[in-house]
Amino acid sequence: MPLPKFKYLAPKTWEEACAMLAQYKGKVRVMAGGTDLLIKMSLGAAAPEYVIGLKNIPGLDYIKYDQTKGLTLGPLALLADVADHPMIKEKYDAVAHAASVTATVQVRNMGTVAGNICNAAPSADNIPALMALDAEVTLARLGGKRTVKLDDFFQGPGKTVMEPEELLEKITVPAPLPGSGTAYLKISPRSKVDIAAVGVGAHLVMAGDVCQMARIVLGAVAPVPMRARKAESLLTGQQLTTDLINQTAAQAADEARPITDVRTTAEYRKTMVYVLTRRAINACAQKALPPCAK
Ligand SMILES: Cc1cc2nc3c(=O)[nH]c(=O)nc-3n(C[C@H](O)[C@H](O)[C@H](O)COP(=O)(O)OP(=O)(O)OC[C@H]3O[C@@H](n4cnc5c(N)ncnc54)[C@H](O)[C@@H]3O)c2cc1C
Predict the structure, then answer these.
(1) Strands 28-31 and 50-53, how do they pair?
(2) Residue to mutate, 6, 54, 105, 118, ligand 1, most ligand atoms under 8 Å from C-beta
(3) Which CATH entry fits the domain spanning 180-287: 3.30.70.1450, 3.40.50.1980, 3.40.190.170, 3.30.390.50?
(4) Cα 140 to Cα 162: distance, rounded to the nearest angstrom
(5) For residue range 214-263, what is the model confidence (pLDDT) as tens digits?
């Protein structure tokens, strides 16, 4: 279907974008790479009168790291740049990997991590890895800002706590703790170039073979990306054994609330949560080992 008619607004500053959003509230959508938005518009699932493109605002594609503040991604940080960034690969390998398995080369060169978050698909690849790392987003509006943990951001498929006059200004991920390991694993029955049928993000902080902290996030198995909190609590403070890892993966599968849809069945999704959680925990534990122990 052709795109419906709309007026394209191209602010040159962030403040101008916030002002436009307030002025046209309810009739406007923000566009980063457009790889979700324009498809929705061409399918008739969104019909804004105005589209605010952010690309004329210089400097929004930044990727920064600071030992205290951690990683910060600007609203136009591209999936391709996050996937290939040496610092992100070194310190946040699950984040780089999640971006690298999102869509195709062409889409990764247009699409952004911020767009992936704001689109709020339960299957979005970048969310489980970022949530596992306790990431938060800063939301800006004319004259104000607030910060929201990704844990509290999603309300349902395509629904977030973001108000119509708010823009996602940045994504912040805390600096990695010593002894931490992260992983993101995805499975899609069709091919690599497909959205996840199941995605699992995990983050463990290890002291030797004892797990001090665990976060496990499941994608595509509930209306929102979800923490498997009971599974996490099984690991915390415990020595990692094969039995415990299997038990934790089974608990994560129990917590998942998948549906059957065109991609696969609920039953298959539960089984894959078990398999991917087990693999993700093992991968995190392996990465958390000090270099001399590897
Ligand atoms: C062929 C194809 C394959 C794909 N495969 C995958 C896949 O494997 N995994 C996956 O997770 N996704 C996939 N996608 C979806 C999409 O590419 C990603 O979600 C991408 O990250 C979206 O980023 P974008 O910058 O293009 O977002 P846009 O389309 O520009 O925006 C998406 C949504 O976020 C809002 N938005 C964007 N930026 C902001 C902001 N700063 N503030 C407020 N709201 C904002 C927009 O209004 C819109 O509602 C695929 C898409 C295509 C076309």
Answers:
(1) parallel
(2) 118
(3) 3.30.390.50
(4) 10
(5) 999 999 999 999 999 999 999 999 999 999 999 999 999 999 999 999 88
